């Protein structure tokens, strides 16, 4: 490839970095709070809720994310064609424009959020259960309510404990965004694969790999800094 072709390709791929960052950002925005809610539901003493939460986590962690993306993308058209589809679901989905760009992104986001919420839920649950029960009793003796105890005493300790495991999931998310190209969604990996036959070269894939590597490296350094700041026992 000539320098001009490489420059053109670089500019083209820069245009598709924002859609990749959009998947990453919105997935974190929704999956982290949802993961905390799922963790609390799994710890619920009402067994039916705990069982249903366990089934959800098992399905999300036990099936490939790529499969979940494909199911999310094509579920609405198949439900609309299904003769046995309940009327309220059919009426709810009838106004969905499956040809719009927003539809693809929304289905993509639903799959990513549900998948990563399950993983974050297990991380948060482990962090919460690692806190000694004596701290709850001591907080109650000091007059703290259960909500005050959780947000003022327990949650700060949980955050410190779950940062290393959460950072691994977040860095994995950077690489998993490339799976969106299978839908297809116009992001950096999708455009890189499209340019391979155009230029008869693997350089577009290499350039996409450099982006993922650089992004993951920045996050690794960032979480390393956060862990040092939270390491207040030393």
Automatic annotation (TrEMBL):
InterPro entries (UniProt xref): ArtM/GltK/GlnP/TcyL/YhdX-like, MetI-like, MetI-like_sf
UniProt key word Membrane: yes
TM region(s), chain numbering: 23-43, 55-80, 100-121, 202-226
CDD domains found in the cross-reference section: TM_PBP2 (cd06261)
Domain ABC transmembrane type-1: 17-223
One cellular-component annotation, GO: plasma membrane
Top-level taxon of origin: Bacteria
PANTHER family referenced in this protein's UniProt entry, alphabetically: L-CYSTINE TRANSPORT SYSTEM PERMEASE PROTEIN TCYL, MEMBRANE COMPONENT OF AMINO ACID ABC TRANSPORTER
Family to which the UniProt record says this protein belongs: Belongs to the binding-protein-dependent transport system permease family.
Protein name: Polar amino acid transport system permease protein
Top-level taxonomy: Bacteria, Bacillati, Bacillota, Clostridia, Eubacteriales
């Amino acid at each position: 490839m000539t320098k001009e072709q490489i420059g053109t390709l670089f500019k083209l791929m820069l245009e598709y970095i924002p859609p990749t960052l959009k998947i990453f950002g919105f997935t974190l925005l929704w999956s982290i709070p949802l993961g905390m809610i799922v963790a609390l539901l799994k710890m619920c003493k009402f067994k039916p809720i705990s069982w249903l939460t366990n089934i959800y986590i098992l399905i999300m962690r036990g099936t490939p994310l790529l499969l979940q993306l494909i199911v999310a993308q094509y579920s609405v058209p198949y439900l609309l064609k299904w003769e046995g589809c309940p009327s309220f679901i059919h009426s709810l989905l009838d106004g969905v424009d499956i040809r719009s760009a927003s539809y693809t992104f929304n289905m993509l986001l639903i799959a990513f959020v549900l998948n990563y919420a399950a993983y974050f839920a297990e991380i948060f649950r482990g962090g919460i259960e690692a806190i000694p029960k004596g701290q709850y009793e001591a907080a109650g003796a000091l007059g703290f309510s259960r909500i005050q105890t959780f947000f003022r005493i327990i949650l700060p300790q949980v955050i410190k404990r779950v940062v290393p495991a959460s950072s691994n999931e977040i860095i994995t998310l950077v690489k998993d965004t490339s799976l969106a190209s299978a839908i297809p969604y116009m992001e950096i990996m999708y455009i890189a694969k499209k340019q391979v036959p155009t230029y008869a070269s693997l350089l577009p894939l290499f350039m996409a790999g450099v982006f993922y590597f650089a992004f993951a490296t920045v996050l690794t350094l960032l979480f390393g800094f956060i862990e040092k700041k939270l390491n207040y026992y030393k």
